[in-house]
Design goal:
68% of the residues lie in helices and 3% in strands. The protein is an all-alpha fold and 281 residues long.
């Protein structure tokens, strides 16, 4: 994908997307090289060999993110690509975004202490930067940094491929992918929430059910839902469905059950409404 060229001549657009479509069909390349350098990064020794590997890692990340942007463009515009090809492209995009979260995790202490940090093809901006933050306080701040990055990834993915035209693709990914990771579940959740295809709320409920009640991503689900409720363009019925999903998460957590009863969900929703949880800020 990194070798694809988009010429300035507008008559070349059709041929460009044909090439992109073919590359999507080929699927993602092996991640062994990236795994190798990532493991080296966590090693204790700072040998000359490791310095070379770290530079290689940064260069590989640039290629990964560049390829991911091309895949996003291809997914939005590809014509004649099979459903499986689109699913493969989507999974490759999510895997490249996982690299962002992994980098944020590795450098979380550095991110917490800086206003901005650049690595490979990405720049992290710390909007909650505190110049008075001390090293001994990092244990409290680092989890916030990592979870904030994950929410930001969801927003970026929504802007990149969150087209309503692709809504059914995201549902198909949830239905058909095997061994779906927690990261993939969360970002499929965000994309389905953004695009709202048919039966979207039922699909999101299924994803919530698939994640353990005490898992930290349950809070992230609520964060995404509340952001969409307060900032998205939603119909009255969509807003009501979002309230039900927020209450579903809270009921799941309080009962520690995979699927809490509807009476419990309605009760929690009523309490949250009475307490002004859904009121505009």
């Amino acid at each position: 994908m990194a070798l694809a060229q988009w010429k300035a001549d507008p008559t070349d657009d059709r041929e460009f997307w044909k090439r992109i479509g073919g590359q999507i069909e080929e699927g993602p390349s092996s991640s062994k090289a990236i795994d190798q350098v990532r493991q080296s990064l966590s090693a204790e020794s700072r040998s000359a060999r490791q310095e070379v590997i770290i530079k290689d890692f940064s260069s590989l990340e640039v290629d990964v993110f560049h390829s991911s942007r091309l895949l996003e463009d291809g997914l939005r515009n590809a014509v004649g690509v099979s459903g499986q090809g689109k699913l493969d492209a989507l999974r490759s995009i999510l895997r490249s975004e996982l690299n962002v979260l992994q980098i944020a995790t590795v450098f979380s202490k550095t991110l917490a202490l800086r206003r901005a940090f650049r690595w490979g093809g990405i720049v992290f901006l710390n909007e909650g930067f505190d110049p008075n933050l001390r090293e001994e306080d990092l244990s409290d701040v680092v989890p916030w940094v990592v979870t904030s990055i994950d929410l930001n990834i969801a927003e970026i993915l929504g802007d990149g491929v969150g087209s309503r035209r692709l809504g059914r693709l995201f549902v198909e990914a949830w239905r058909r992918w095997e061994n779906t990771t927690e990261f993939e579940k969360f970002h499929l959740f965000g994309l389905i929430l953004r695009t709202k295809p048919k039966d979207w709320s039922n699909v999101l409920e299924e994803i919530i059910e698939s994640v353990e009640a005490a898992q930290w991503r349950q809070k992230a689900f609520v964060d995404l839902l509340m952001l969409d409720y307060k900032n998205g363009l939603n119909t009255v019925s969509n807003r009501s469905a979002i309230k039900d999903l927020v209450a579903f998460v809270e009921a799941k957590r309080s009962t520690n059950r995979k699927s809490p009863g509807s009476k419990r969900v309605k009760s929690i929703r009523r309490i949250m409404e009475d307490e002004g949880e859904f009121d505009p800020e």
